[in-house]
Structure formats: C-alpha cells, structure tokens
Prior knowledge:
There is one protein chain. By secondary structure, the protein is of the alpha+beta class. It has a domain at 3-203: Aldehyde Ferredoxin Oxidoreductase,  A, domain 1 (4-Layer Sandwich). 40% of the residues lie in helices and 15% in strands. A hairpin with a 6-residue loop joins strand 4 and strand 5. It is globular and about 55 Å long. The two termini are 34 Å apart. The mean pLDDT is 97.
Amino acid sequence: MSTFLRVDMTNLKVVLEDSPPEYEWLGGRGLTARILNREVPPTSHPLGKHNKIIFAPGLLGGSHFPSSGRLSVGFKSPLTQGIKETNAGGTAAGKLGRLGIKAIILEGQPADTKLYLLKVTKDGATILPADDLAGLTNYATVNKLRQAHGKDVAVISIGAPGEMKMSTATVACTDMDGRPARHAARGGPGAVMGSKRIKAVIIDDTGTKPVGAKNAEALRNLVKEYAKFLDESKGAGLTRAYGTLGGLAWVSDYNHSLPVRNFTSGQFEGASKIGSKSAVAALISQGSKWSHPCMPGCILHCSNVVVDREGRYVTSGLEYETGAMLGANLGIDDIYAIATMGGLSDDYGLDTVEVGATLGLAVDAGLMKFGDSARAMALINEIGQGTTLGRILGQGVAVTARAFGISRVPVVKGQAIPAHDPRVENATGVTYCTSAMGADHTAALVLKRKTTPAEAVEASRQTQINVAIVDSLGLCSNAIMFVAFPMERVTEIFNAQYGSNLSYEDMQEMAKEVLKDERAFNLKAGFAPSADRLPEYCKEEPYPPSNLVFDVPDSEIDSFWDF
C-alpha cells in the first residue's frame, strides 16, 4: 500500500497514513490537484497556514521505465493566486517511489521562526533543526547535508529567496551528481516551502528496490521499443546531441517566436552565439559536457554540465528557456554570461523564466540596459541577497510592473510569459490563456502556428490532455512529448506496470479530470473568464519579423472547455 507522509509543521509532527483507495490511479500532477482541491481553501493566502505544498512522484516513480523520475510539486501559488503544479527531474521522485511514498504533504506553520529539515527513510520520517542552514544557497546547503547524511541521499532544498518568500523562488532537486540543479521553478514553490519553515527535505532510500511491474515481460519489451524509437528518431538524436538549448537559433531564425528585448522581436541577431549546434560545439570544446542524464534511467540525455573558460563548474542544465530569457530577451549574446546567470539562479533558487522577464521590465524601469550582462548579474545578486530593490524584483513581473508604473506587462494570471511568444505560436497562446497555471509552456507547447483559431484551440486542448497524462505518470515531457513517442504506447507502459487494461481513451478521460480539478480550484479562488486572456499588446503589436498578432478571439478561447 502506498502511503502519504503528512507533515504538520504547526505541531512539528509527522504521520504516515495509507493513501485512500480513491487515489489509487492518481499520481504526480493528478494527485496534487485532487489533494489541493479537497484540502486547501481556494481563497486562503498562499503564504499562510492553510496552504499546503505537496511533493508527489508520478505513478511510474521508482519503476524500471526510463525517464520516469519527475517530481510534481503542487501548491496554491503566491505568483498567480491559483493552483499550481511544477515539476523537476533529479533523484528525489525515484527514491520516494521506491520508499512507497505517494506524496509528502507539508501543512501548517510553526509558531517560531526556526528552520527545519525533514528526513525520510524506509523507517519513517523525522523533523530536524536546521537553523545552521539559514541564508545558505542551494549548493552550500546540499554540500553540508550530503556530508552529514551521505552522498547517496536526494535533497530538495530552497535558497535564501525561498526563506524570504519571494514569488520567483524555486525548489531545487539534486541530480545524479548531487548538484541542486534541477528545479521545480514556476509559480513560487520555494516561497511556499519557506513559509512552512522547511529548508530541505532529505530522502534516503537505502534498503529499497525498484517498484516491480505486474507484467514485467511486457514492460521489458516496451523499454526495448522505447530505446529503439529514440535511437531511430531524428528529433531525439538532435535533442540528445544538443539539448534544448541547441534549438534556440531555430526558434529565432525560422519560427520567429523567440523573446527578444522584452518581447519586441521574434528574431535575435545573436541567436547562433547562444543557442545553436555551433554554440554547443564551442562549449564542448572548452570542456563542457553534453548528452548528460538528469535522472537515473534516462536514455535521452538532454541535459549538460557547463564549465567556464577556465574549466570551473558553472551550472548543470543550461536549457533553452534560460538561454532565451536571460539571453535574447535581455539582448545578451554572451553564452558564458548567460551560463553564469543560470548558475546564480541555481544557487539562489530562482526561476530563470520569471527573472528573465522581470529584468526585461527593469530596462523599461531604467534599472539596466539591454546587452548589459554585468548589470543583469548584479540585479540577480540583489534578488538573492534580499536588498530592497531585490525584494521587489524577486516578486516577479507583475509586482515589478506595479512598482514602476509599467503598463506593457508580459504576464497571464500573474505569471511571466515564457520563451515562446503567443503571437506566433497561437496554440501555445491558447494554453497560456486556458491553463490554470497561467503563462506556462510546460502545460502544452505547440511550436508551429495553426492556420485557424479553431485549430489552435484544438491543438492546445489535445496537447494539454497529453501533458496531464505524462505529468501524472511522472514521465519527462522532453523524453515523451518533444520526441513524439506515441501516447498509445505510454498507455501500454502504464498497463504493464500496474497490470491494468486501460485504453488511451481511458487515460485521456483521467487527464481531463486533472484539468477540470485545476480549473475548479481557480474558479473557487475567484478567477473570472477575463483571467483567460493574453495581455492587450499581444493582439495590438505585430511581432517582427513575421508581423503576426495573436489571432484567437475570446469566444474561441472560451470554447476550450466544450469537451
């Protein structure tokens, strides 16, 4: 029987309880949505005692299937004021799955201002003091914890911005090398974890084994089929060789949907320097490593380990979004400067999408100029150190815009638009509008523009359904969605693991319930249909060089839920 680990921070007590039978087919994002709907008042303050933060491996967490180690983090977001799920790779989800823990639920708040750790093993869980970690960055925190608790533990941690409850604060998860470089980033999960006064969660799965499949032979055959598919897929080969960063120049020069200089152009003259085959080759020639796994069992290997020109470690996981938002969106074409800013964000625990968009507004506010990487780094350091200006910027785009009287604001539901402009990617724009998460490409990314508004709505709808399946199973979207592995086969993987006989249509219906749960929370939190809209400028400002505007009428957006 899978268990819930319920952590009452008000009374500093931990209780293991059996997962209710009704949650049997829920995991990852599907589970966090259902728990939040049932246990968190939708109108509660995101940083108050009534909010909860839930860490849930997917239904395949701890299994033998590759790329099944995504950890879903669910909470009411201080950034959007609505429901939020964000997920990360690394080692935590697999260890929780092997421990038989379906979810860790952090609830309540301590009366004091002390910091605490939660340590989880096969024998249970304990709350430990952690005041000695106050103010430490993620790398310093993890180094101390691995020295004290062993090199093989997984650590989920926050940096100082999380302790200061900034809405850009992430939750960091350690990768296979013990680096806190895999982030559940969007929506401010670090702030909610900080509000519970938990600095880190330590997961030790010593003495456990992978979760066996009910139909082991069928799963083995599916693993072989999946590996063969990746070996033969051109898209998978490119992703394996160049990661997501390598596609930045294509988005700029062919799709024309890259964010450039605060979303004023879709094509960046320096794109080849910061995100192309040649840019990746240059980094490799200087000692960086590509084709690197971020979680055990991954065979796509789309991550990387980046070093500077002197060979010193900078960051693990320099991805497209970071290159776009901290590079092109700020007019910066120095890949080493971008990597350094990405490394700072890892260490402090900051969402590079929200921070990159916020620094784009900082130009409008007169705080920096486009192309000035030194000033951008200085402002990231101000966020990490919690200066007065840093605390404003650290609350994200919407707060920064209000503070400086800026009216052109790239947000939906309070969250920054990521590195896919919706004026070109109109189906992605529908996702930004209709997803309960706000502007979040991970909810459903559709790169190619659709010919008609109806096609854009349908493409977003079907992709959101498929992503909800993948997120609930704990699979990596890059390893499934991005390489177009058939969803029918994903259903067979689930059936082999659980001995079930569900169809793809059954899985889609389950995924629709996830989307409905998320929407229901937001409606009860006070969201009106007017929240399902892009900023005005997306309909009014043509996006060069394609000179497109977002073309999906409000009536079509409102039809999204007609399923």
